[in-house]
Specification:
- By secondary structure, the chain is mainly β.
- The strands form 5 sheets. The protein has a 25-stranded parallel beta sheet that branches.
- A hairpin with a 5-residue loop joins strand 9 and strand 10.
- The longest helix has 9 residues.
Length: about 625
């Protein structure tokens, strides 16, 4: 298997029940009738294991000590079905535990687990219990992210308090070329920490580094930005980088990857960190890998003018586990109930995440944990993270149903371009998120999964108080989950502390323009779930097209407000397929309207070498 099995706990040397209480040198006890009583066996070894669902079999062993002739062995068990797994044990104590596909386990939330046990017996009847705790597969990527690929990063989980002053520099600038107001230093990567801790470096300085290897910065605080950069953009290749418990650090101009590290850059409990003009390369990587992981109480993180490239292959092992991982992951820390806030992600180029198609299938899997950006999990849905994601280009990001999955609140997504990207910007959990002035565009064939424009989608919404406004969508091919604008039905009215789909309420959909999308246009509710959206405002939207339902009022709820919308249908398209909208709610145009398409971002606008004079 390409992934190592994660075994988180074990109990070794457990004495089985039934011991005689005599010393280990006693081999038998005399009985009045002249016979001898058998001495109970002593069983030790791996008797308690935690494992992740869909992460391979457990292969371990027990040992047995029994002085009685012929009794130092176990009773064989072969392919014994338990509640969740299949257990086998040979006479020497070697055992395996396999967990096949299981609906209950597949539905576990990230912080949930189940347990079960099996009993093993020696020849003389001594018993021991092996206990199994099975963790959610969703938790695996988080713990992989916590795995260290260098010595310094291994201490990240021990960071409990912020080492720097609560006051930190925030001049409001996000200049992709920071202005250096102090001295210039030179250092090799190996000597970087010594220089940072020498007292010679002050806020406003820059350090030009040479060499290769790993950067790991910890407990390093400055009152203003210190720029750590390659001499020229792309001239230094790093294995990994980590910044923990630090403040006012900028990393600029590096290349990270391709390599087999689980995380290329990790930012832990740090403030005012800038990640500028770097390349994160995943080409031909067969292990699960994430470009950037942000966790604990990090704040004011800028990720700008970088490129994230080439999750170009999907590898599936014998257990169906694939090389998952995202480009950027905002990780919720369950222990401290904290996560990164006030991040600014802008002018980045996200390119090429291939879809996951199981062997023998012709359509991709909807959920493969290969999103471009992940914002939190079910535990973070009410955390107001206040992120701003703007002016990014997403091209061929086809990893799954969600290009970005948003599970936090109070975030803004604006002026981003999505080109030939399968899936949707998904407000999956949380409240008060905004999608405004984004451009979604499909081009080329869309019939086969290998086609560039296959199932390209727009915006999908669950939860409360969201806004979808002034977005432009053209020639998208997505249907169902990947419809251009889907204010979906839900399976619960309140998803707090859960992973269900909260029916949308108090959502505003206004001033959007949708042109010639193969899957129709704006859908208020669908038959995916049973609780229809309520208190939805749908106003001043324009939809044209030759296929599908341009306006679909599946919810048909009096609490929803429609006004000022326009449609122009040609071919087989329907202006309002269900016929529930009146003249004041939807104007059916008799002639084609004049539409001026916005200018999408291109590779000249984003990434490490983009011209930044327009900022």
């Amino acid at each position: 298997m390409y992934k190592k099995l994660l075994l988180l706990s074990a109990m070794a040397g457990l004495n089985a029940c039934g011991g005689s209480g005599s010393s280990s040198n006693d081999t038998s006890d005399a009985i009045d009738d002249g016979t001898t009583e058998s001495t109970a066996a002593v069983i030790s070894g791996k008797t308690s294991v935690e494992l992740y669902y869909k992460n391979g079999d457990v292969n371990e062993s027990l040992s047995i000590v029994d002085p009685d002739d012929g009794e130092e062995a176990f009773i064989v068990q072969t392919d014994i079905a338990t509640t969740y797994g299949i257990f086998s044990l040979n006479s020497d104590g070697e055992w395996t535990y396999e967990v096949p596909e299981n609906e209950t386990l597949g539905d576990l939330n990230e912080d949930e687990s189940v347990s079960e046990s099996v009993t093993v017996t020696s020849i003389d009847g001594t018993e021991a219990t092996i206990r199994f705790t099975i963790l959610s597969a969703d938790a695996l990527s988080d713990d992989d992210d916590n795995d260290s690929d260098d010595e310094d990063d291994s201490d990240d989980d021990d960071v409990d308090t912020y080492a720097c002053s609560d006051a930190f520099d925030d001049d409001g600038s996000d200049d992709a070329n920071p202005v250096v107001t102090g001295a210039t230093h030179n250092s090799t990567i190996d000597d970087l920490n010594e220089l940072l801790n020498s007292g010679d470096v002050q806020g406003g300085d820059e350090i030009i580094v040479s060499g290769d290897g790993e950067i790991s910065i910890k407990d390093t605080c400055f009152d203003t930005q210190v720029l750590i950069r390659a001499e020229s953009v792309g001239s230094i290749i790093l294995e990994t980088a980590a910044i923990s418990n630090s403040q006012n650090i900028t990393l600029q101009g590096f290349v990270l990857g391709p390599n087999d590290a689980s995380t290329l850059l990790k930012i832990v409990n740090s403030k005012n960190i800038k990640v500028l003009r770097n390349t994160f390369d995943h080409k031909d990587i067969t292990d699960g890998q994430t470009s950037v992981v942000l966790t604990e109480s990090s704040e004011k993180i800028s990720i700008a003018y970088n490129e994230f490239l080439d999750k170009n292959i999907v590898v599936e092992d014998d257990d169906g586990q694939i090389n998952s991982g995202s480009y950027i992951k905002f990780q919720y820390d369950d222990d401290t109930e904290t996560m990164t806030t006030n991040a600014h992600i802008h002018h980045n180029y996200f390119k090429n995440i291939v879809p996951y198609v199981k062997e023998g299938n012709t359509t991709p899997e909807g959920d493969s944990d290969r999103e471009a950006i992940v914002f939190g999990d079910s535990g973070s849905q009410d955390v107001e993270t206040n992120h701003l994601i703007e002016y990014n280009l997403f091209e061929d990001t086809d990893g799954e149903n969600e290009i970005m999955t948003v599970k936090t609140s109070n975030n803004t997504f604006s002026n981003n371009t999505f080109l030939n990207s399968m899936g949707s910007l998904s407000f999956r959990l949380g409240h008060d998120n905004k999608a405004e002035n984004n451009y979604f565009y499909g081009t080329g064939d869309s019939t086969l999964v290998t086609d560039a424009n296959y199932e390209t989608g727009g915006i999908r919404v669950y939860g409360a108080n969201h806004t979808v406004s002034n977005n432009y969508m053209e020639n998208l091919s997505g249907t169902s989950w990947r419809s251009p604008i889907l204010i979906d039905s839900g399976d619960v009215s309140d998803s707090s502390n859960g992973n269900s789909h909260e029916a949308p309420t108090n959502v505003t959909v206004t001033d959007n323009t949708l042109v010639n999308n193969l899957g129709g246009g704006i859908f208020i509710g669908r038959d995916n779930y049973t609780i229809v959206p309520k208190d939805i405002t749908i106003s001043d939207n324009l939809v044209t097209g030759s296929k599908g339902s341009l306006f679909n009022n599946y919810a048909n709820d009096d609490a929803n407000t429609w006004s000022g919308n326009q449609s122009y249908a040609t071919g087989s398209a329907a202006d309002n397929e269900d016929g529930t909208l009146g003249a004041g709610e939807l104007e059916v145009l008799s002639s084609e309207p004049t539409i001026t398409a916005p200018t999408p971002l291109t590779t000249e606008d984003v990434g490490p070498t983009a011209d930044i004079t327009a900022i």
